[in-house]
Prior knowledge:
Elements: H1 8-17, E1 20-25, H2 31-41, E2 49-53, H3 57-70, E3 79-83, E4 86-88, E5 95-98, H4 100-109, E6 116-121, H5 129-144, E7 150-155, H6 160-166, E8 172-175, E9 182-186, H7 194-208, E10 213-217, H8 221-230, E11 239-244, H9 250-257, E12 265-270, E13 283-288, E14 291-298, E15 303-310, H10 313-321, E16 329-333, H11 337-340, H12 357-366, H13 382-394, H14 406-413, H15 418-425, H16 430-444, H17 457-469, H18 471-477, H19 482-499, H20 510-524, E17 529-532, E18 539-542, E19 547-549, E20 561-567, E21 573-581, H21 584-590, E22 596-604, E23 609-618, E24 621-627, H22 636-647, H23 656-671, H24 680-685, H25 687-690, H26 701-704, H27 709-714, H28 719-728, E25 732-734, E26 740-742, E27 744-746, E28 750-756, E29 768-769, E30 774-775, E31 777-781, E32 787-791, H29 794-799, H30 801-812
Parallel strand pairs: 1-7, 1-8, 2-5, 2-6, 3-5, 6-7, 9-16, 10-12, 10-13, 11-12, 13-16, 19-21, 28-31
Antiparallel strand pairs: 3-4, 14-15, 17-18, 17-20, 18-19, 20-21, 22-23, 23-24, 25-26, 27-28, 29-30, 31-32
Region (Disordered): 814-836
Protein name: ATP-dependent helicase HrpB
Pfam family, one: DEAD
Amino acid sequence: MLPIEAFIPEIISTLTNDNRLVLQAEPGAGKSTLVPLRLLQADIFSGKKIIMLEPRRVAAKSIATYLAKQLGESVGERVGYQIRNEQRVSSNTRLEIVTEGVLTRRLQADPELSDVALIIFDEFHERSIHADLALMLSFEVQQAYRDDLKLLVMSATIDTELLSNYLDGAPRLSCPGKTYPVEIEYIGKASRYLADHVLSALRHAFTLQSDGDVLVFLPGQADIQRCIQACQELEQSNVELLPLYGGLPLSEQEKVLSKSASASRRVIFATNIAETSLTIAGITMVIDSGLEKRLNYDVKSGLSRLDTVMISKASATQRAGRAGRLQAGHCLRLWRESEHHNLSDFQPEEITTTDLSDLALELSAWGVTQYKDANWLTPPPMQHFSVACQLNHSLGLVDAQNKVLSAGQRALQLGVSPRLASMLLRCETLISQQLACFLAAILSERDIVVQANTSDICERVLALIEFVQDRTRAAKAYRLHRAATEQAVKLAKSFAHKLGISLKSEAINLVDIQTLVPTLLLHAFPDRAAQKRPQGDNRYLLANGRGVTLRDGDPLQGQAYLIVCDVDGKNKDGLVFLSCAIEKSTLLEHLTPYLNEAVQYQLDSKKEAIQGRQQVKYHALVLKEQNLSQIPKEAFAQCVKDILTSEGLGLLNWSAKSHAWLARAKWLSEQLNTFPQISESSLIAQLDTWLLPYLTGVNTIKQLKQLDIFNLLQATLTWEQQQQLEAQAPEFYVTPSDKRVAIRYDEHQGPTVSVVLQEMFGQLTSPTLANGQVAVRFELLSPAKRPIQTTSDLSSFWQTSYFEVAKEMRGRYPKHRWPDKPLEEKPGRSIKPRGK
Length: 836
């Protein structure tokens, strides 16, 4: 008997008396398989419908198949499922297992969920953005429309307190699991290459267990392929090497989940898809790389990057537990035990790290238009939400107040991102609609071309169209990944069905593709228009200001403009994965409402003249520009301001006296709160006040450089402030011999005076500035004007260090004065009078 069986009466009782329950059930308890089945059979839900939300498609199908079998039925009778582009349900279905997007669509279409009595959220610890959204909407439905609707949130590793508080104090219930002991061994990093490390760990695993299958957790598909290649030698020992990842066709995933009695020993290389819901038969050993792929959104660039990062402690626990489902097992962790203590407790919630445009559109359709109005379980970054709303507005899906438009409502029915939905909805002809369906399919899945040498998406569209007509020939001609291409065809047909069109595409040719695809992609990626940079044929600037790079040898290199659909957001100049060339005329035609005309001015340093360029810009891209033959006189002051603002104040006539004044004023403003803040940046910020009014009649750089900057600087201070500057940060220091020496107001060393030592005889103490807060620093010089001592405390110097200095200097400069009583000596020249 599964451990959860003993808790079923309490689960039913709690849901009878309270409409919400948070259930934590450890691995092996049977929550995903037994709880929905027992609730389906409970009197409280007799004749009523239950929806169970399952994060992964293959898990939804697998669980539905298992539960139907327990009832002695086929899938689609009392137990059914619905995932993207596939469903098996009937009028008799009472327990429907769905993936996240399906539940959201149902909630948007029927907020009251009038035929549903219970929603079960399984494996909620994964905290996908859609699971968070579905729980938010379901909870609101329960509060606003259906106080009889029941919610059950389940997981093995979950923050029950957080969820209970969110659900208004929902009851919490914990159930132990049924697992055998798992011996955990930390083996650290034996190689810099993951594949070699895994092979070494597998050899070690086979010495620990002579039978049983091995589950190897890896971060991604490429890592799986490399590891399988590295471990080929094991196949000679009757070991079967199998991949398992989300992009694998469902039929192949399902084969991995089951095991025939005569099958050889298996090593299954999997991503974190195998962490939870999926039960893989025969596993007694786990090798955990400790790594996973995590998508992180950069709000500044608008790009997402796929990072390889360490997993959380909760994930490590889930992975290790896979080895103890059948018998006592082993888990080999490919990191050190000391590193394990530094892992985070849980992985970050997806809502905090991903693009929120889809979520923002869903909330707009729900009636939530402002960040503060959403009942967040975990609030996402506010800036991410704001940027997402702006994108949806630019795509024509919401208005300026973030209220959903009819186009936004239609977009949600398509089951794609807002970008692709905008493209699908803005087609004007049948051919453009067909092309949009193919494009959306290609952009919704992994690349259909194996080891592509070009990022050109037009080539992929042509390949997909030809694949529909002749699969074998097209697969060879374009080196297509068969499974990915089959899935893309399915998706394209699904989009065509939703648009009410046929995909018969005999009329589409390469000219149509090259003509229409750039415009279609511009509807989806208006911020990803890119312009070739002057430096190199493969470097481009996106409209949002981010740099990108084409792979060396890409046939698209040298094209003046591109639309970039998919790009790596990791690096400064991310690598472009999918793009297409676009004509400047197409950009100008379709972006007219968003173009800005402006005049840019810059200084020609050789001619010492200001040049003006009139530009037509689309955000960061300059689409048109021409030189101005003449700078209007009234614009000269503004030209100067623009140049000084961008390049600093060096264009002005800075005398030594002006530089010295600025250094004094800046230093004093840093010492005294009573003195105004003065610096080069503050002067630039106040150009309108102290400089521009004096440019009347100034029309050339030559005239500008004749301006007396010192007087203009002085005029920024009131008479009282000028007196304060002279008193507290004077230009000169007067020595005891009545000699004026300039004070250097050094940014790092403070006010400093360089003076021959003998000039200071009689100066008992160091003078102070800034209302006595800072002592002047003296750089005392030898007769050769070289520094021999630096001090801010003359009193101490005369009493101590002077005698050592004098002793050394007498030998070097015997004709100069080095008296034993310097404070009684007359200040002045260093050389001795004649006859002494």
